[in-house]
Structures are given as structure tokens and as C-alpha cells.
Amino acid sequence: MTDTINCGKDTVLTIIPCLNEAAHIAPLLRDLLADPANRRIVVADGGSTDGSREIIRQMAAECERITLLDNPAGIQSAGINRAVAHYGADAAWIARIDAHGVYPDRYVSRLVATAQAQAVDAVVVRLETFAESGFARGVAAAQNSRLGTGGAAHRIGGAGGLVDHGHHALMRRDAFVKAGGYCENMACNEDAELDLRLLAIGARIWLEPDLPVTYFPRRGLRSLLRQYFRYGAGRAATSRRHRRPLRARQALPLGVAPACALALGAPIVPALALPALGWAGVCQAWGIALALRERRADAAWAGSAAMIMHLGWSAGYWKQEIGALASGGRSLPGPSLPFAAS
User: Which residue range(s) make up the domain with 194?
Assistant: First the structure.
């Protein structure tokens, strides 16, 4: 892969959805400014109250390549759509940067070079979770393994090639607009939902394995449970909206919430606890195996982290699905697209 890119002024619109990222936004912006491909960087802020906006304003005053944009809706999908609508007219490409991550050198330049070399409409990348120690280390171990992700190519190191989904990094602006942009009724799973619409218009999505993004996981039990509850609900909405059945790796965790509910009857019928106990045993054994492989005792938390992730995902999925069934589909809002899909 070459790092040579063919671009004119403002060919890449780099967008950073942001909410309370004062600890990370300044170093991230400095890193992006070192890449010549980032000619215009728009930070779509969803109402930060931790000083992020002041940091962005100060850096924007010092560098005209940085722009602060208000994102009243607060969610990432709406912030990216708003940035494209306001500043994307002259852009050939849209680069999506998450504020809470670490990126390879010349990340956007290399994304564009990959897209040009592979003649594709979008480039997605691998997501690698990192934590120093403690429970978060276990979360990272789970999320970087089949235990937590079921074998998704962009999470366990898949080879480069055409895919139907991955961690969003770069898209042609015209393909993004033609597909309708991100659905603003989806606070989660909006990337996978957009990928289905991109594929429907004939777009080609390439997974680039050599440009991984480092992600820092949730550190608390409740925040991890909430995160995966939202993931499950988002996946249910995507599957129902596009009439797409779940893959095996996505369907397996669906039994977790029912198994845990069934186990509540164990004081009366002890055998009712067996499914939940079997699942818990597999997770804990896998966590111990990961700890032995990594030679890190705290990686054994992966078993408990995976149980929280599975339970949250399953509960969120079933809540969304049952709500949609009970309301005849009325509880599932239709796509809210900022651009006229065609």
C-alpha cells in the first residue's frame, strides 16, 4: 500500500463527534493536524460541560483547519450528518474519528490511499481494545477475543478484503449522501445500519487490517452493561428494519437473558438453573484460558466481563424486539435520514 494520495483542497472532511472529551481532544487534534490530508477538521460537540468546548475553541482560533460545530441532538450519527451538511460540499471523502481513541500515524492519508488503491467506496478498520490493568483489562481481553465478539473480523484481526461491516473510518461523500447518511433515530448500531444501505446502492466496503484503532473500554460494571444493552437494542432495530436475520455469532447470546430469567425458578425446580450455569462456566473457563495465554492474572476478568456483555446485549435485543412486536412495529421509528436516499 502506498501513502501517496491524489487530492485537492478540502478533499477530506474529517469529523470528530465529541461529548466531554477534555482529557483526549487536544492531543487528538494535534495528531490529526500532523497529517496533511486533514485539511478541514470539524468537531461536532454534543454539549460538553467538562471544558472540551473551550479547548476546541482555543485550538480553532490558532488554526483555521479546526472548526467547532454544535450538535444539539447529542448523538454521534446526528453530529456527523450535520457536519457533512454544513461543510461537506467540496469534500470527496468523509473521515470519521472517534474522540476516545488512538490512531496510527498519518491515519487519514493512509485511509485515502487504501481506498484509491482498492477502488472502493468505504474503508473500515480493526478496533483493538486496550486497558492497563484490573477489570478493564478483562474487558479488553474479552472484546479482543471470540468470547466477547463472536469472531467479528474487525475485532479479532481479520485479513484485508471486501466486507459488509467494520469500524467506520472513511467513506466517499457521494456514496454517504446517496445512501441517506446515518439514521438519526438510532443512537447505537447506526454504523452497521448505514453499511446495509451502502451495500444496497452497490458500494464496496474494504477492511484494512493495517490501520487498527485503539479503543479504551468501560471500566465499571454498570456502564459496560448499559453499553451492551444499547448495542443489543440497536442490532434488533437494524435486523427488523432491514429484515436481516442474525448471524450465528450474533444469535448465540440471545439465549442468555432467557436463561437467567429461567434460573430465577431454581429454588422450586433446581434444573432450571442449568442453562445459566453452563453458560457461566464456559465464560469463566474461557477467561481463565485467556489469562493463561496472556500471562496476566487480571485478564481472567474476561469471563465476568463477557457475561455482562452477553447479558446486556441479550436483554437489550429482547426488549427492543418485544416492544416492536407488542406495538405492531410502532415502537420502532422509521429511518430518519438527513439526505434524500436514492
Answer: 12-217
